[in-house]
Amino acid sequence: MFTLLLRKMRNTKWMVFCLLIGCIMACAMMATIPIYMNASLQRMLVKDLETFQQTYDIYPGMYNTKYSLNMSLNPEGQREMIEATQKAVDDSFAGLGVEATNKRFVSDDYLYAANFATEAGADTVKMHLGAMSGIEDNVTITQGRMFEKGKNANGAYEVIATERAMKVTGIAVGQSYDLANIFDPDSEQIRVEVTGVFEPKEGSEAYWAEGLDDYVSSVLADYDTYMGEMLDTGALHTSQFVNNYAIDYNKLDMTSLDSFSEKINQHAEAYKEVKVTFSMPAKEIIEDYAGRASQLRLVLWLLQIPIMLMILFYLFMVAQLNVEQEKNEIAVFKSRGASRGQVMLIYALESLVIGAVSAAAAPFAGLLLCRILGASNGFMEFVNRSSIPARLSLPAFVYSFIASAVFFATTMLPIFPATKETIVGHKQSKAKKRKLSLWEKTGLDIILLGGSVAWLYFYKKEQAQLLSEGVTDSTATVNPMLFVASTGFILGCGLLIIRLYPFVIRLIAFAGKRFWPPSIHVSLNNIGRSSTGREKF
Questions:
Q1: What is the chain's Cα-based Rg?
Q2: What residues have CB less than 8 Å from 460, skipping those under 6 apart?
Q3: CB 59 within 8 A of CB 205
Q4: Of 102, 171, 224, 421, which one's alpha carbon is 20 to 30 angstroms from that of 54?
């Protein structure tokens, strides 16, 4: 059976090649649906988030949590509460499964410089003493130097501040200050020394997503030193613990966006119960995105339908031509004792081989098509930007497999009637006049053309009337019937050309019958007077 199949495919190698190309095209177009759709939705989401950031100067990928500590807690109680809150937030965020930069911040906001000389009647200098994890890698020192861990030789803890904080508080680099609690001046004091002035490091925008406005009265120490040594002095009463994540929204996976949004809502409810303040600027954008994504999916599907229909027509016509050429061979098989099922099995195996090769190769061809299409604004109009983030996914292979199954059914349809004929019936059918196809009898081409043109006429007339009355809606979506009408017009034109093709050939043959050489004359006559009509294809 397999030897016979290979011999058959070798004898009709060009027809098999055409079927293979058509099947790969069909499967690749189907595979591009999830690839291009996901990539387009991904780009749309990223653009929305970028627009939000440019408009409001807020990084939309922030996952902000803040917990206010009780001022009556002792040092060990503060440390335990901070560590418990940190673990709860870290565990919750890990469930999102996204890439992010983490930053933890602790601060005592109720301190003042006890040894800072002020003018008579002036207020004391209020200061915030805080610590931020990972700050060493995300700042540039513009004056002085970076702090060092632990106490220095002067018995002070080293801190740094922004230039604006230096101006607001009046502190200076190289000076030491004794900080005390503003509500209890007689409490323990802690000495700090300002060693440098900093500004955000270039490329650390995500780390400083909240900006520097919250630190205009702050001096910042080493995070580990704050948690390990400075708390134990008893001079600090940590007022807030902030645990922020800066999500890289360019790498958000839109295929899991629904579950992501659901988890964010669950986190918001859980944080309310434990009195943790939670905010995420992108939360509303992601929620609104679901509705816009469904509209875009509909448009993309409608754009794919005409292409898929034309490829199906191509596959069916090539398969029909293949069967027409092999009807004699099918009849010979049956005359030699082959059953109808055995004949169909041979062609089924051929379609399965072509379909399997196409299903395996099509997703990669579809990925290449998406990257080419994603690098252009229109036909042959390439732009100087990165292509859409197209990548292979499981749905691409599933769609390719579905297209392969449709190809199998399409190519097997002409086999059923062909296996009914015997060799005698086949010889008789060649002498009979060709019967019109169902679409030719019903005038499907005329119906499709007339219907699509008529709808377009009334649609434009209705739009013109609405404009004349001043009725406009800039938020209206694209009318799906536009795609249906365009598909009908394309199919109608194709079928009309197939109907008129023999007559055009006859006209050409008649016009040049005195000039055509015998070979061309015979070819034109065979096509124009074909009893089966197969030469049209």
A1: 38
A2: none
A3: yes
A4: 102
- Taking each helix axis from N to C end, the angle separating 394-412 and 13-56, rounded to the nearest 10 degrees, works out to 150
Q: At 294, list the tokens.
A: 């469904």
Mean pLDDT of 76-93: 92
- Region 188-194: mean pLDDT is 92
Nearest to 496 by CA among 440, 453, 454, 535: 440
Treating both helix axes as pointing N-terminal to C-terminal, what angle do 340-374 and 282-335 enclose, rounded to 10 degrees?
A: 150
Q: Which stretch of DSSP H or E encloses residue 261?
A: helix 257-273
Does pLDDT of 508 surpass 80? yes
Task: Find the angle CA(505)-CA(510)-CA(515) to the nearest 5 degrees.
Answer: 110
Q: Which of 125, 123, 127 is nearest to 110 (CA)?
A: 127
Phi-psi category of 5—alpha, beta or left, where left has phi over 0 and alpha has psi -120 to 50? alpha
CB burial string 241-254: b at 16+ within 10 A, e below = bbbbbbbebeebeb
Strand spans (E) along 306-464: 376-378, 381-382
Instruction: Please name every residue paired with 245 in a beta bridge, in sequence order, or none if there are none.
Output: 63, 102
Residue 248 · residue 206 · CB < 8 Å: yes
Separation CA 85–CA 43 (nearest Å): 35
pTM of the model: 0.65
Would you state the structure tokens that stand for residue 103, as one six-digit string? 């930053």
Cβ neighbours of residue 368 under 8 Å, at least 6 residues apart? none
- 289 vs 283: CA distance, rounded Å: 10
Taking only the tens place, the pLDDT of each residue in 227-253 is 989 999 888 999 999 999 988 877 777
Phi-psi region of 418 (alpha: psi -120 to 50; beta: other; left: phi over 0): alpha
Q: Is the dihedral of CA 87, 90, 92, 95 positive or negative?
A: negative
Q: Above 50 in pLDDT, residue 454? A: yes
Collect all residues with Cβ–Cβ distance below 8 Å to 525 and sequence separation of at least 6. 509
Q: How far apart are CA 378 and CA 183, in angstroms?
A: 67
